[in-house]
Design a protein that fits this description.
The chain is of the alpha/beta class and about 350 residues long. The protein is built from 13 helices and 13 strands. The strands form three sheets. An eight-stranded parallel β-sheet has the order 3-11-10-8-7-6-5-4.
Length: about 350
Amino acid sequence: MAVTIRGKLLPLPILQGGMGVGVSLDGLAGAVAACGGMGTISTAMCGWREPDFASDPRGANLRALERQVRRAKATAADTGLVAVNAMVATAQYADSVRTALRAGVDAVVCGAGLPRDLPAIAAQVPESNAALAPVVSSGRAAALICKLWDKHYRRIPDFVVLEGPMAGGHLGFSREEAVQSQSGGGKPLSDLLRDVLEALEPFRQKYGRDIPVFVAGGVRDGAEMAAYMKQGAAGAQFATRFIATEECDASLAYKQALLNAATEDITIVQSPVGMPGRALRSPLIQRVEAGIQPKPDKYMRCLSACDPKTAPYCISRALMAAADGDWENGLFFCGAGAGEVKRLSTVREQMKQIMNEWRSAQ
C-alpha cells in the first residue's frame, strides 16, 4: 500500500490534486499530508491575499509560497509528503519551482504544458532532493518527457500523474474529448493507464527502478482506486472531493456552491488561454456563452499564453472571485463527479473513507 518516492515513504497511495487559485494552499495540503497522503499546494497566484499583492504580485506570490510550504510541512510532521503543483503555462513557473524547492517541498508536480526543463530548474537548488513529476494525458506524452529528461539530464520522472478527461480545471484533451467523457464516452482511464505503463517500461528497465503512476480525473472512490491499482497504478489523485472539507483553503461560499451543484450544472468551458476546462456553469460562464460578458479593464497576465485582445475575461480574477465565493463572477473549476459531493466533511474523514473503500475492494 505504501509507496516509496525518491527515497521517501508515502504511507497512503493518495495524492490531493493542486487547485488554484487559493483553493489548495497549506491548510488543505498540510491536512492531507498529516493523514499520510501527499498534499499539494497550487502555486498559481498563491499570494493574492498578501497585503501588497496589488503593487507587487510576483513578490507576494513567492513570499506566500515559501511560507505555505513551510507551514504545510510543519503540519505534516513527517507523516505524509507535501508537493506543489506548478503550471508550466504560468509566467512565474520557474521562480515558483525554485522557491518551493528552497522551502523544502517533497515533490514538484507540473502540468498545463510540457515540463521539459524541470530537471534543469531543480538543479539550480542543489540542496533539494525533491521528487519531480509531470502530469500527462497519454502514453505518448509520458514517453516524450522521459526521452527528453533521459537525453538531456540523465534523469527520469520520480512518479507520474495520469490525468484523464473527466478531471476538473484545465484539461490535456480537446473540447470534443472532454464533452465525450462527460457522457461516458471517449477512451477509458484504464486504457490510458495501460498506454502510460507501456510507455514508461523501457525507462524503468534502463534505470532499474519503478516510476509510480497515480491515476486522476474521474476516480470516484477507494474502490475505483483499488481497481486501477490492480491494473498497475500506484494509487490515485483526488481533488474535487477535498474542496468540501473544513480544511480546504477556499471560502465556505465556494464549498457551498459545489455542494449545491447537480451533474447537469457541470460544463466544458473554453479557458481564456485557449485550453478546454471543466467547471460549474456559473453566471460568468453563462454570460461568456451568450457573448455579453464585459471585457475587464485590466488583465493580470499570469499565464504566458494570455492575450487580452481575445480573452473574454481575466481567468485569475475569475478564480479569485470563486475562491471568495462570488457566484456571479467566479470561475468554479470542478471534476466531472462534482454533482456527487453533497456533504461538508474533514480531510481525515475523506482519507478514512477512501481507504475503507479500498480495503473493502480487496
